[in-house]
Amino acid sequence: MDLGPVMLDLAGTELTAEERELLAHPAVGGVILFARNCCDPQQLGELTLAIHALREPPLLVAVDQEGGRVQRCQTGFVRLPPAARFGRLRRVDPNRAREAAERIGWLTAAELRARGVDFSFAPVLDLDRGVSRVIGERAFAGRPEMVAGLAAAWARGARAAGMAAVGKHFPGHGGVAADSHTELPRDERPLDALQSEDLVPFARLIGQGLEAVMPAHVVYPLADALPAGFSPYWLRGVLRGDLAFQGLIISDDLSMGAVAAQGGPRERAELAREAGCDMVLVCNDRRAAEETVVGLTLGADPAVGQRQGPMRGRYTVTRSELEANPRWQQALRVVAELEELGEEPFNVGET
To answer: What is the pLDDT of residue 340?
Structure first.
């Protein structure tokens, strides 16, 4: 049975009978984990093992493990620095910053792969323009070339540990102040500004084999009236067409306030898929998840299965093997070095 297009969340640290039944539905293709699902590494490994055992091919298991304030798995895991720390180091020593980003990309992926997680929704490719507190220190920097270089290094490290990269939030979330978790942001900049700045990191990483992209719940009215994740213009025209992206497109959470006007749960999922999303996230709303799974129109698309394949994690190792790897100690030294840089202030301007 092929994997479906819906990625769902779970209630706790173990699968319930109801969740096992829901995850067996052909419309489901993966699980996204939150902090409530990760109490320690051993428990996480047991949970991912149980999820993977439910289906063949196994469901994909993902998590937001960016670092900084967005790190779902914490107890028993290295506390990862926010992306902005690499940008701060980049202003002092560009080569060292790229090396540090690559080592932390490896560390992030290696820890998750040791516990059966297939991929993290990272790296963030948004530009920090000093406008969005939702993005802020989650962004590597404010300059396109800096973001592209550091994110590319992070992705190289993650791939070396057996994990694909997910670039977000296409075509760029850093130019709006509104929080898409609660309202729909509007980025009023002209298209040429987006093309010459915000799209640069996406174009660079796509050229280097980026495996997946997550679109933003943001409207860019001078380009299209629809939020990017529901826009054929952005997904089929710009992303697939102009940028020649061949990987997986995964929607941001369709339960977020920004997309409430796009209809009910099933309608949102259908619209996102029609626009070009291969998979859709439905999180923290079990009724919406069930409605989406049961009501979604399924159709065979071999291309989607081919795009899902590279998202499956590789090189699973034990914790002891991980800690015996020389890269482990090297990465820990980088974490300590970045910690000494201190907190990145909001609205730093140039970055």
So the answer is: 85
